[in-house]
Specification:
heterodimer, A: 112 residues, mainly beta, 5-stranded antiparallel β-sheet, globular, B: 115 residues, 7-stranded mixed β-sheet, 4-stranded antiparallel β-sheet, 11 strands, 0% helix
Chain lengths: 112, 115
C-alpha cells in the first residue's frame, strides 16, 4: 500500500514561479526522500531529510518535514521548463532495509 | 562511476510466457531493490536483495521472483505473465547505511508489455 500521498496530483505553473508539493505519510519513519522522474524513465534522487531534521536546502530545493503532522513539503524556487517532471516522496523505515515506500506523485508542468 | 544499468530496456511478451530482467548496480553497492510502476498502482516495492539474500519482499504473488549473484548483479523473473504485469520495472541500488538512510540510485527501467 502507498505510504505517502502527494498533493496536488498535478501542478501547472509558469517559468520563474515557485512550485510547492506536499506529501503526507502514515507510519513512523526514519527519513523522507524526494525523487524526480522524467517521462516514465528512472527516478533521480533529489534530497533526503532525516526524521530529526525540520528543513533542508539543496540549490533551488527546500524540503520541510513535520513529523507531528506526518507531512513534508518540497519547494522548487524559480522553476524552469526543465523542472517539468513527476515528483515523488518516499519514506524509509527504521529497520535499515533499503525499502522505500512511494507516494503516487505530483506531476509538475512548467511552461516557458 | 557508472550508473545502474538494466537490460533489456523494452520487452514485449504474450500472456503465459515468462520473462527475466537484469540489473547491474553501481560498483560497490551490495543492495539491489526492485520496484514495479504502473499508472494505476504507482511505484510498488517488489523485493530487496543484499549479499545474495532476499531481505525484504513486497506484496506480490509467487510468480515474481528474483536473485542476486556474488557480484551484486540481480535478476528478477516473472512467470506465467498476465496482462496486468505490463509495467515499468525499476531497479535501484544503494550502499546500505546504518539507521535506514538509504539513498537509492535508480536505473532507467525495463518497460514490459504483455499482450
Amino acid at each position: 500500500s502507498q505510504q505517502g500521498e502527494e498533493d496536488p496530483q498535478a501542478l501547472s505553473i509558469q517559468e520563474g514561479e515557485n512550485a510547492t508539493m506536499n506529501c503526507s505519510y502514515k507510519t513512523s519513519i526514519n527519513n523522507l526522500q524526494w525523487y524526480r522522474q522524467n517521462s516514465g524513465r528512472g527516478l533521480v534522487h533529489l534530497i533526503l531529510i532525516r526524521s530529526n531534521e525540520r528543513e533542508k536546502h539543496s540549490g533551488r530545493l527546500r524540503v520541510t518535514l513535520d513529523t507531528s503532522k506526518k507531512s513534508s513539503s518540497l519547494l522548487i524556487t524559480a522553476s524552469r521548463a526543465a523542472d517539468t517532471a513527476s515528483y515523488f516522496c518516499a519514506t524509509g523505515r527504521n529497520s535499515g532495509y533499503s525499502t522505500l515506500t512511494f507516494g503516487k506523485g505530483t506531476m509538475l508542468l512548467v511552461s516557458p | 562511476k557508472a550508473g545502474v544499468t538494466q537490460t533489456p530496456r523494452y520487452l514485449i511478451k504474450t500472456r503465459g510466457q515468462q520473462v527475466t530482467l537484469s540489473c547491474s548496480p553501481i560498483s560497490g553497492h551490495r543492495s539491489v531493490s526492485w520496484y514495479q510502476q504502473t499508472p494505476g498502482q504507482g511505484l510498488q516495492f517488489l523485493f530487496e536483495y543484499f549479499s545474495e539474500t532476499q531481505r525484504n519482499k513486497g506484496n506480490f504473488p509467487g510468480r515474481f521472483s528474483g536473485r542476486q549473484f556474488s557480484n551484486s548483479r540481480s535478476e528478477m523473473n516473472v512467470s506465467t505473465l498476465e496482462l496486468g504485469d505490463s509495467a515499468l520495472y525499476l531497479c535501484a541500488s544503494s550502499s546500505r547505511t546504518s539507521g535506514g538512510l538509504n539513498e537509492q540510485f535508480f536505473g532507467p527501467g525495463t518497460r514490459l508489455t504483455v499482450l
